[in-house]
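Box 3.1 A note on notation
Throughout this textbook, protein chains are presented in two layers. The first layer is the amino acid sequence; the second is a token string describing backbone geometry. Keep the layers aligned when reading.
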Amino acid sequence: MAGEYAATMQAWRDDPSAFWLRAADAIDWVEPPKAAFDPSAGVYGRWFPDAVCNTCWNAVDRHVETRGDQPAIIHDSPLTGRQRIITYRDLAARVGAMAAVLKDFGIAKGDRVVVYMPMIPEALVAMLACARVGAIHSVVFGGFAARELAARLDDAEPALILAASCGIEPGRVIAYEPLISEAKRLAKVRPPVLYWQREAAPADLAADDYDLGALFAAALEEGRTVPCEPMKGTDPLYILYTSGTTGRPKGVVRDNAGHMVALAWSMRNIYNIEPGEVFWAASDVGWVVGHSYIVYAPLLIGATTIVYEGKPVGTPDAGAFWRLIAEHKVVSLFTAPTAIRAIKKDDPDGRMPADHDLSHFRALFLAGERADPASIVWAEKALGVPVVDHWWQTETGWAIVGNPLGLEPLPIKHGSPTKPMPGYDVVILSDDGEPVPAGTLGNVAIRLPLPPSCLPTLWGDEERFRSAYLDAFKGYYNTSDAGMIDDDGYVFVMARTDDVINVAGHRLSTGVMEDVLTSHPSVVECAVVGADDPIKGQVPLGFVVVRPGAEIDGLEAELVAKVRHEVGPVAAFKHVIPVPRLPKTRSGKTLRATIKKIADGETYTMPATIDDPEALADIEIAVTSRGATA
């Protein structure tokens, strides 16, 4: 309905407590909230402080009677050639059995449990079982480096690790037991490990290791379960670690009540998903997208979620996503822009979607990094559905800025994730903390309090929470992103503030230059960094991945001229270096800070989250062969 977005935002502004109490009606409560918000609790206030609830009950148990035979989880694994369907009734039995195993090991409310698994249904079952008994799960990406896992063990101090024996990647199997054993050797905290044995590489069990599959199978056969633990609304549901500037990971805390309320609201109003429909977030449970939109949000509303053990390309080809959407009747896909760029590279003309029946497919959502307009346009033409960029962070757990298709689809502006969602009072501030005029680049901040689901603190470190997020601008949460808001209220998130470069006194967004480069038909994706320059302070340096078969000769001159024309001479953009691939994290973010260090000839530490270490070698080779850039 026309004006529904504006009316919703006005209702939130007029009475935030009433707005979120109405949203809370979507949740089953042991004791419903009487107050939406307590401004005196925590660092900036707490949501639903007097409520009592259980997230597992809302995601699993309450659906068994009304939709017990409906698929809750569809597991699609081209890497193993297998598919599994788990109904809500099946899921309830499996989660109950897993919870019984946790209880057998003494796990109780407030204990921490690390989950170290790939994209298999057991990862979701483990997370939900923790929620059932009141344990706080901390999922670590399966195959994560031993040193990083050790840091998380020492910070969270878990009582137990639930792990798979291996992960499967195209062309290789990654054994997890050696990584976990090394992590325990490095860590001060060394909990027992329960291994879910996989055929590709079973784990050798040590003295304090156990066969999770056998224990689980016995509990399932006996029909064992445990009741859902009543939890305060403010009790932690999980800890999810994100990179910290000090090298020590930051443990983002998510509570139970606010998390459920916000996610349930978002599924219906942002993603336009109804109970019974199939929703697919093509991410990993090790990342926040996996937590929010593979595990919790779809199940909270009684939808079907997809667990995909595969890649956008290579399993077997660039049509993998479209095959899965057609086969499982997915109505909306949520993925990272890097996945679309990988598909676009292998299918530049966008022909593969036409090989599949996508008549039921309604929308493609992108998040995780900035979506370049060229990739959005490619997807719009190839798929014939709205392609919706939206922006959020690990810290928030759901969209800060988006396009609410369930409320009122707003006109799309390429390069913008559209407008703020309820609860988020987004402003652009100067470095001095003053609001800037519309269209001016500045620091993206959110006026406190943050809405439900956003982190109330960091695990065990309230002072670090303040210094990392709240101290820069008094009364605001600092997103550490740079951007602007136009005259129509559309938000443009251009880069991390570290990626705003200063060229001869001019603050310039690398994101703007990247948009220009990727609009060239020969460029698949790119990264622009600010290389140190003795005269100008910094100069932009572009690294581009070129479409296969594209002409290289003369490309640099074309791209330099294009940036000069569309951004202006002030950008001082003069250098472009072709590379076969860009180094990225496993969640799809380009490692621009590391690329900059290589460009500046500085030493760097291999990022723990890197997906393909050889991509950094490609950058080094390209920079060395190019020589001086300035």
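The mean pLDDT is 94. The chain has two domains: 4-310+390-482, 504-626.
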